[in-house]
């Protein structure tokens, strides 16, 4: 099975969604249209839930957790749709299979990168806990140790993650072009094509927001506006424009981070420094207790948010992996070399 190395690959192997809306070709039955409309209605409902009531909710760990959970649901719905359409994987064109496997590896790469960054951010929790422990003492020596822990925390959080640095190029590949070689006329294939297009848009959008938040750069791939021929286009475009604009504004301010919970911790740290750096005997106990309490609450909220988001990213990894494994299992009886199609050992680490 050949894989041209130089061709620009689309995110999903089912062709240009605009082509399927042409009156030419196979006519889609009313029953299939109802299936498609039900799928797109659920997709739109998920997108609506991601539209924040306030700009302060944007790029928070809680919003990112909700976004990743919605992504898991949409990918699970695609699996269910394939079953409902009775479109067995073994009947797919070889090029579809080739591209699907290639894309699934890229999605797994993103999951591994996001998980590694969440783990790195969580590692700073111990430094914050050490600082809080020392700040509960009235000893000037303990304050010096607290400053040291906070300095190390800022240095740790401010460092770069090589895996996150690679996300931009992966997202560029995923966005790509939607055009692929023509596939055989199939009403079921057209329904699946349009459904997959919606999930593709949602996937690249969510992952691009994650990459921007974790990398500290707004250069990550941004999904273009969706044409209004789709029932969910208006909702998606509203969400896209709101989130992208807020991220752009935050980056323009040159803040420590665009992540709400992380910025809250940093704000408390900045407020503590003038109090505990070399002026121990002028500290007002009541003021110090208040700020230390704020830092403690912000630290706990950050830790809890990171833990919840980590679980959702892990869930998405499993959704992608099980979908990939299901494809391989369906093909294995008739193709013993399918595992080598994309040059990746399924049991090996996805990201080096």
From TrEMBL:
Its main location: membrane. It comes from the Eukaryota. It is found in: Membrane. This is Protein BPS1, chloroplastic-like. InterPro entries: ROH1-like. The keyword Aminoacyl-tRNA synthetase does not apply. One of its GO terms (cellular component) is membrane. It is a single-pass membrane protein. Keywords: Membrane, Transmembrane, Transmembrane helix. Belongs to the ROH1 family.
